[in-house]
Every structure is written in structure tokens, then in C-alpha cells.
Specification:
The chain has 45 residues and is an all-alpha fold. It has helices at 9-15, 18-37.
Length: 45
């Protein structure tokens, strides 16, 4: 059996250009954080 490198999110992130990496990281944070913490764009009364 040959050993092959597994493609993980970390290795993909390191392989990206720095500007794409920054965009991908920010997009991921701003997409996931509201879901995890239950933030909404409008305040509830």
C-alpha cells in the first residue's frame, strides 16, 4: 500500500495564496460564528 497525503482543511488552507487564505478564514468565521453563538442581525424585543 502506498502512502498518500490526506487532504485536510488545514493543508488546503496552507496551500492557498495568502489573500485567498485570509478571505477563506474570514468568510468561514463570519459564516459559522453566528450559527454557533446564535447571533442575529436584528435585535429581538
Amino acid at each position: 500500500m502506498t502512502t498518500t497525503a490526506k487532504i485536510t482543511a488545514g493543508s488546503r488552507l496552507q496551500a492557498m495564496a495568502p489573500d485567498r487564505q485570509a478571505f477563506f478564514l474570514l468568510r468561514t468565521v463570519f459564516t459559522v460564528a453566528p450559527i454557533l453563538f446564535g447571533w442575529t442581525s436584528s435585535p429581538t424585543s
